[in-house]
# Entry
Amino acid sequence: IILFLMLALVGEGLLSFGENYLTQWIGQQAIYDLRTTLFRHVENQPLSYFDRTPVGRVITRTTSDVEALSDALSSGLVSALGDLFKLFFIAYFMFTLNWMLAVVTLLVMPLMVWVTFWFRQNVREQYRETRKQMARINAFIQEHVTGMHIVQLFGREEEENERFEGINDDHRAAHLHTIFYYAVFWPSIEFISNVALAAVLWFGGFRALGGSALTLGVLVAFIQYARQFFRPIRDLSNQYDTLQRAMAGAERVFSLLDTDKSLDEPAAPVELDTVEGTIEFENVWFAYEEDNEGTPDWVLKDVSFTVEPGETAALVGATGAGKSTVMNVLLRFYEIQKGRILVDGHDIRDLRLKDLRRHVGLIPQDVFLFSGSVRRNLTLDDPGVDEDLMQRAAETVQADRLVERLPEGYDQDVKERGSSLSRGQRQLLAFVRALIYDPDVMVLDEATSSVDTETEALIQNALERVTEGRTTLAIAHRLSTIQDADTILVMHKGEIRERGTHQELLAMDGLYRKLYDLQYADQAASRGDDARADRRVQA
# Structure
């Protein structure tokens, strides 16, 4: 008998281990799949989604909101199913033992159901508010860690700390509301359960003492069943709170999954194996957003131009003229509202996004580098990029000199956003990254505007070789870098006002001439100040 009991205890322990491990594994696997699906969905959203959605909110949806489902998907659902099974099993025996006492016991159930619905209606809203406030906290922290140098530079630490305290206080208040409703809900369930037990004792006691068929033994046994009946109800109350917390997180997660703003892929895409490099804009209109009356706030207005294979076209104009927007719509980061953009005669909406972006390389003005090695930032972990290809691309733009000066070369660790490198160094690495994929069309978004004179000279020398034989669309701030362009497009308030070569535009004596005179007047004044300073030093 002792051996049998020991084996039974061991078996119980193994079954308990198996149950706990299996339920937790199922829950974590579901969370893993959901988080992976969510991240893949976020990756496919257009840039317009990220323009209006704070980064902290996206982080909250993919981390803590998903994590809120963990308890419900692992032990929560299994425990709830077990409690429901116990509930119906005990109710069956209660009716078998004495149906009248069972009916008395169940008379409190409508009140329990009402309390439960009251709790669900109120606490769900508070959990939504708690998740919302947590997203605000994450967004605030992410934004301020990124811009901490601005906060410290202007001495705004105390003011920003007060703002954070306000947001944190809103989160605390929302969470305290959930605690209040749970603090009311749990004692209410306990009270109703005790009322039911008291009613059973009162009704059954009178019948037992009154000489009915109900005996004291049956009454005592029934009370024990009734106590066991309300135990899973109490456990379900705990699980119900977990479920409401999970449902609030699930609503936010699935609302993100329901956000289908991704760019449409063509049903029958045009195969684009090779690209000659003809770029055409035909009467393109584009707006990032609409005003309060629903009228588009046009950033590009009836833009039309053509760049032939191998030619270099430069876009110039004042800040806000729409130059970078041309790049954004060419790469289909945003969808145009009117007109067409053609690559080799094919509407870019008829091309797979992957094909379009494989043939069009981009050197952005604000270079983003991931944390990791230099090699990872250049190859992006693409198995098709070997060491020789990476080194040849680096040599082309003379970035190999930069890499050689790093202590660990291509294995040098790069900090978040490339903060351990200068802006010029990041710009050179961006050139290498684009050249590795050998694009047929190169887009340069003020690629030399943020580098020093020496680095600019390196890039200019490299550009002469890089752009040879490639269609190039250069967005320029320094007019000295685009004087040899085949065509210069002068933009003003979203429209192309002038076009021609450098000399032709100067002869027009229009917008380009004003930009040229203004820029070179500033440079001449700067050189004059430097010369006067040199004379003072020599004196």
Remarks:
- Residues 507 and 513 are 8 Å apart (CA to CA).
- The chain is about 60% helix and 15% strand.
